[in-house]
Amino acid sequence: MLGGLAFGSEIKRFARNRMTRIAVVVLMLMPLTYGALYLWAYWDPFGHVNKLPVALVNSDRGTEVSGQHLNVGAEIADGLTSDKSLDWHLVDDAEARDGVAHGKYYFMLELPADFSAAIASPTTGNPRKAQLIAEYNDANNYISSSIGRTAVEQVLNAVSTRISGQAVNQVLSVITTSGSGIKQAADGANRLADGAAQLDSGANQLVTGLDTARSGSAELAAGSRKLSDGIDTATDPLLKITDLVARVGTQSDQVNGQVQDSSTALTDASDELGTIVGAQDTAAQSLTSVIDSLSANQDAVSVIATQKLRDTRDQLLAHQRTADIQAKLAKARATAAEGGPVGSALSDISASSKELSSKLTQLREGAQQVAAGNAQLSAGITKLDDGARQLSAGTAQVSSGSRELATKLTEGAQRVPDWTPQQKDAIAATVGGPVQLTSSHENSAPNFGTGMAPFFLTLALFFGAMLLWMAFRPLQNRAIAAEINPIRVTLASYLPAVLIGIPQAIILYSVVRFALHVHAEHPVAMLGFMILASCAFIAVAQAISALLGPVLGKVLLMMLLMVQLVSAGGLYPVETTTTPFQALHKLDPMTYGVNGLRQLILGGIDGRLWQALIFLVALWLGSILVTSLAARRNQLWNLTRLVPVVKM
């Protein structure tokens, strides 16, 4: 009965008047200041960055590219101001810097004067990178500077992708244009290879013909030298006879006195002349055989040599001992034998002999000239043949090289792409921005508020639990004085607080779910988990207050609240905090409240939810046990309890 009266008396204490009843309502609504109010204030801050005033300065003067004016800065400025990703204000440099310095603008972005020139620099042979100049002022707002750096990086990536696409487009234009030139070069190289093959074939034929001419000219030179030697040998006796006959003619005045001697001389001359005629016939036959050999070769040199030899042979045959000369010699011998006058006959023979001697001399000289010319001809043909062989080797290399050139150019022309303008633009866009991010979010939060809801809800529940024990007594003195069971004493104080703590969780849940429209994957489980967390946090706050007393308990709860704010991992990943807070992370009650609500609100339930449930239940029961031990301890009075050191 005492236990029930204790429980009822604690509730009745807050129902005495209107102000205490209002206090109970305020206690129920206090978690909203940390939960719903904070979530509402920071529901989607990144979704409203387009309201941030930012200065944009376009100092770009532009440049000339292929006779056309290019001003990339103006294009980028128009693009930024039109997409309204931020509240861009296009101003001059002085106004922008003054605005950033005095908080009118959160930061500024400048496109320098040589921006277009730097972008077009790859086409000038002196490439350099274009610069974007950003200036921040963290004294305005540090978070805005962080947002600005992220925004500028996105602008830089977009501009780089666009510029890269334009540069690659120009390169592709050069490639496709040069491709037609390579194809024309390949066609020309193929024709060159065909001509080189014909040249090589003609050179080979020339070598073959010159080989034949070289052999024939060598034979002709040897034959003409042999012929000249044969003519010299054959005409030596003739020249002697003609000289002798000439002397006979000059001594015709003495002939009549020496008829007998003349008759004898004529007989000797006639015999010698017969010998000469035989040698002359032999020489003519030799010439005929050489002429027949040369007639088989139809080249120009052989034709000329054949004609010369025919003339020489005809001259030999033309000065043979004819029947007329034979008759004259017979008449002269008869006249000499008869002792008649023979002077006139001898004069005729002398004149004929002189003429024959002159012809023989010409024959000998002509044969020598023919032999010398044929020797020079043979030497020239030999040099020509050697040169033709070198030419043939060179033409073979030319033919092989030109064919290889034609083959490689043809292969290169086949590899040069033949893109349409649409394909070229698409390829330029792909190469200019080769990497495209495709991201996916498992259990994604639609906005900042939803993502931060687990932290703010857990914080609100712990804050509400802490406030309850500023109004309620952690242990009822009447129950302790009556020496009631410590567990009953603990519950007598705990249950009234829970009767307010549960409505705290329900009200907070309702406002967040239906007023702020926080979507939850598991709404019923979310409400149940919030009630469990509230009960556990109320038990923890009661245990601390009961164990240390109202004053020190409140101080420790405030300290615990501050520690949990940074060690729970609700705002930033715990790995980004310092080492002590990382160590406290696993012991922080709010850690498990945040983890559990994250999985119930965003989805993706795994072992962390069950770990959170087990930890909160264990924390709840352990806190009840600690409070019971404190209640049992308080049933024994001492001087310290009667006169506490610290009062509140």
UniProtKB/TrEMBL annotation:
GO terms for cellular component: membrane. It holds the Pfam family ABC2_membrane_3. It comes from the Bacteria. The chain crosses the membrane at residues 22-43, 452-472, 493-512, 524-548, 555-574, 609-631. Residues 26-165, 378-630 form the ABC-2 type transporter transmembrane domain. It is a multi-pass membrane protein. InterPro entries: ABC2_TM, Phage_infect_YhgE_C, Phage_infect_YhgE_N, T7SS_ABC-Transporter, xxxLxxG_rpt. GO terms for molecular function: ABC-type transporter activity. It is found in: Membrane. Keywords: Membrane, Transmembrane, Transmembrane helix. This is Membrane protein. It comes from Mycolicibacterium obuense.
